[in-house]
């Protein structure tokens, strides 16, 4: 990252300096706050040790990401099936109208 600046983020009262492109600074800060909140939730559930807290938070976030991704894929599949069904209905209506017009 040659055009990077460093940003200081805080996770569980520890300070980390992270390289970040200038245009992504606010997103990095938001992501760090989000991660800090999740790590605090894990710690508050009586998980001990920074490494273990970080791993558990990462696993929880990964699980949520995969669930969301699967839900979006299913939604996309449903949308595709609906589109195909609508095309079939349109085709049938068009065929019926052509048949009716030919008989008139």
Give a description of the structure.
With 104 residues, this protein is of the alpha+beta class. The protein has two helices and two strands; from the N terminus they run ββαα. The chain has helices spanning 25-44, 50-103; strands spanning 5-11, 14-20. The chain has a two-stranded antiparallel ribbon with strand order 1-2. The model has no long low-confidence stretch (mean pLDDT 89).
Quick recap:
The protein has helices at residues 25-44, 50-103; strands spanning 5-11, 14-20.
Provide the fold topology.
Blueprint: E1 5-11, E2 14-20, H1 25-44, H2 50-103
Antiparallel strand pairs: 1-2
Q: What series of H and E elements makes up the topology? A: EEHH
How are the strands of the largest sheet arranged? 1-2
The shape is elongated
Q: Average pLDDT, to the nearest integer?
A: 89
Q: Class by helix and strand content?
A: alpha+beta
For the termini, the CA-CA separation is 72 Å
Q: What's the assembly state of these chains?
A: single chain
Low-pLDDT windows of residues: none
- Rg value: 26 Å
* Number of helical stretches of at least 4 residues: 2
Largest sheet: 2 strands, antiparallel
Notable characteristics:
104 residues; elongated; alpha+beta
């Amino acid at each position: 990252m040659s055009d990077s600046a460093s940003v200081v983020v805080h996770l569980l009262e520890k300070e980390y300096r992270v390289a970040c492109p200038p245009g992504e600074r606010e997103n990095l800060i938001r992501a760090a706050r989000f991660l800090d909140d999740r790590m605090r939730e894990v710690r508050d559930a009586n998980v001990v040790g920074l490494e273990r807290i970080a791993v558990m938070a990462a696993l929880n976030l990964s699980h949520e990401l995969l669930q969301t991704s699967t839900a979006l894929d299913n939604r996309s599949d449903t949308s595709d099936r609906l589109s195909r069904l609508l095309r079939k209905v349109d085709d049938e209506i068009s065929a019926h109208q052509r048949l009716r017009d030919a008989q008139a």
